[in-house]
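Support request, please re-run this one:
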Amino acid sequence: MSFAAQRLAPGLGLLLALVLGAVLLTALPGGDGPDGEGCGPRAIGSWSADERLTGEFARYGDDAARTDDWTGGDGTHSVRLPDGRLLWLFSDTFLGAVHAPPNPHGESAAWRDAAAPMVRNSAVVMRDGRLESTLPGPLGSALLFPDPGPGQWRWPVAARVEPRSPGATDRVVRVLLWTRTAGQPPWIYGVPTATEVATLSLPGLRVESVVKVHDQRTVPDPSRRVLFGTTLVEQDGWTYVYGGDDSRAVSRPVSSAYVARVPEGGLGDPSAWEYWTGREWAAGAVPRPVLGDGRRAGVGSAFSVVRDGETYVLFTMAAGTAGLHTVTSYWSCSPTGPWHGPARGITPPLPPDGVAAYNPQAHPELSGGGRLVLSYDVNWLGTTDAAARINANVALYRPRFVTLRLRDAR
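Re-run finished. Output below.
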């Protein structure tokens, strides 16, 4: 989910979204839980900053060899490709060149021009731990996923490699997209409009098609529209697709999380989607929340889910003012809940002075051996001169990473 909502004031969208509370689901792949047990309470046991991965994005963003590639972005989803490459997907993205100090803004950090272009989505390819290229869009466009219409845009979220259709041998990349439409406050980062699925070819990563799978335009209250794809969990031949609403945009205490499921190979087929109704899975049904009590527990519209053995673990920015810097967690024995928590959180490293964290995302492709790699986005918190602040210090709009281990919380 991107919070650089307006081209001239990306920090404004961030401020609103942080006040709304960004929440996220994620879990550690592999294993059968502590001491070989099944599902049970999980919490963050230990963690450390992942300076190598954070530094790789700084290196790539600062590289002046090209003037048309990625210099910063948020959203930060990843998917492993069959040939070993890692595809990183971003929402609002700055392109152009980065300049080394001396900095005309009085900062000691690298900086970008005020005229640097910002696009609504991008992708960067990593090979053997090193970022190597920014994907061009169709026909040379800077956008990987073109706008669906005037005043609308697409933000890529979770992705997976799957058969082109159930049982097929041909494999493709499926990318979930959030379509938003420009709106007035409180919808300064766009009115939620629809969930789409893009199909990318392998190995060329060419966009073949974009299909709308969950249209929300007929839901009259935008704060109750649900966008799916903040995260995917693959289990027993199904892909579980999580989503959220934007209730906190209209000052409700919390937003809610929802889940759908699709048989493997069916993400691009709207008729294959089934939604959790609170009692059963049903095609074409109105989804019901799996987390969100309207008071204390709930989510934002961006979250990520994976599993630790038989346990599902949920990471989120904490509620209230702590949510500007603290990541906490929940756990469940089922993708549909009930969810337990929140547990005690962690405060990952942030640049000093007026900077906030948001959008924690798990990256199972980089995890293993009991470790979980988690990214989080950072941005300037204030609403005054937000664009100037971000341009003056490119580190304010790039992902950072931590590595953590979960523990038995009993």
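Helices lie at 10-20, 51-62, 386-392. Confidence is low (pLDDT under 50) at residues 2-36.
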